[in-house]
Amino acid sequence: MPNKSHRAKRVRQSESRRARNRWRKRTIKDKTDGFMKAIQTGDVAAAEVAFKDVSRQLDKVSSTSTMHKNTAARRKSRLSRRLRDLKQKA
Q: Domains in the chain and their CATH numbers?
């Protein structure tokens, strides 16, 4: 437990930032899982909708300090490649 008030404030800020970052990362994981389920079932329409949702969320999170822009771009690229492969099979 900090002895000084400014250190206590820093602890509070760290906790809230950590919670916010964890929420952002969790939403990306959840949306990615939904996309992967659509890919595995072979549903092209659902996969396209889920891909739009995931890429939108990645763009939002990468505009903050939670995730680097290149990390989001790499993930979007890998997901779009899976979507492209699904479309070619269908």
A: 5-89 (1.20.58.110)
